Amino acid sequence: MRNIPIARPIVGWGEIFSVAKVLKSGSLAQGPKVLQFEKNFSKLVDDRECIAVNSGTSALHVALLSLGIGTGDEVIVPSFTFAATANSVALTGAKPVFVDIDHQTYNIDPSKIESAISDKTKAIMVVHLYGLPADMKLIRQIASRKNLLLIEDAAQAHMAEIDGEKVGTFGDAAAFSFYPTKNMTTGEGGMIVLKDPEAAKKARLLRNQGMAVRYQNEIVGFNLRMTDIHAVIGIEQLKNLSKWTEKRQQNALQLSREITEVTTPFVPNGFSHVYHQYTIRIENKRDKFSELLTSSGIGNSVYYPTEVHNLPSFKSELHLDETHKATQQVLSLPVHPRLSKSDLRRIASQVNKIGSELG
């Protein structure tokens, strides 16, 4: 019986032919295809300013810098996330201030945010973890009341919504990732989304050595450009993103109907989950559960096994109860668009079998 991988990037002939055309053109660096990709992606975020860069981490970093966040500032972040969230804050010279998560959604707990705000707090950075939006309406109210910037780490949440309002449009800035296993890919890359045109102008300078015109460096910047090769992959992927998102949601619905022995993903009313990951909770013997799934040929993974504030790079004395529990109990299953109905039945059956055996 074949193995079912945890993730499987989809690359079709459209991407292949488009890349070949760019390669034949001889114009490989940032150019007209990047501009076209930015314009096409902006349709997903209510026509906000979009700036393509070489990774999701770069998108977060430049978004923060473009909003003026730097040394002496504090940014509130969840600790249950990939390290890039906090890394991007630290790379500006600011301090990430870690907050616990909600037990059901795995996203930052709005009720814990206000107690973490100090006179140095400049922004709140939320993560729409696994493809489920954070409670943006409530968090937006907090940010507005406290006069704080609001930034969305939407690396895993392309096309997610709350009551029809799109992820990437709730705050002052957002960042998306196009890593190969994300819901869409450019091979590698990221997109900055900004509300303020002046911040967008600064972001474009920062990604390109501080230049709008060649050799006329206006500020100190980086080389974080996306190439036209990567951009044409993104252009093609966007054509299928809606279809792939619907398939992920259908796959998740089938899994949630058929899995009965463990806790399946929670989705609040009005929230659209796009299932970058389908994450179950195993309260006991999670690692043994994972081992048995792997031995049965079903891919699975733990996202994330260590609280960011306990990584060597951010070692602290904090204790965040729900974050700690999540690192010990979460397990993600395959949910990608290439799964068949029989694949999904097999996944659910094995999860139920192992769940029953382990109690």
Structural description of this entry:
- With 359 residues, the chain is of the alpha/beta class.
- It has two domains: 13-99 and 107-235, Type I PLP-dependent aspartate aminotransferase-like (Major domain) (Aspartate Aminotransferase, domain 2, 3-Layer(aba) Sandwich), CATH 3.40.640.10; 241-358, Alpha-Beta Complex (Aspartate Aminotransferase, domain 1), CATH 3.90.1150.10.
- 36% of the residues lie in helices and 14% in strands.
- The chain has ten helices and twelve strands.
- Strand 4, helix 5 (136-145) and strand 5 (149-153) form a beta-alpha-beta unit.
- Helix 1 (13-25) runs antiparallel to helix 7, helix 2 packs parallel to helix 7 and helix 3 crosses helix 6.
- The longest helix has 31 residues, at 228-258.
- The radius of gyration is 20 Å and the shape is globular.
Please outline the helices and strands.
Elements lengths: L12 H13 L6 H11 L6 E5 L2 H11 L7 E5 L5 H7 L4 E5 L21 E7 L8 H10 L3 E5 L7 E2 L2 E2 L6 E5 L12 E5 L2 H11 L20 H31 L12 E2 L5 E4 L4 H10 L25 H9 E4 L7 H18 L1
Parallel strand pairs: 2-3, 2-4, 4-5, 5-8
Antiparallel strand pairs: 1-9, 6-7, 6-10, 8-9, 11-12
Helix pairs in contact: 1-7, 2-7, 3-4, 3-6, 7-10
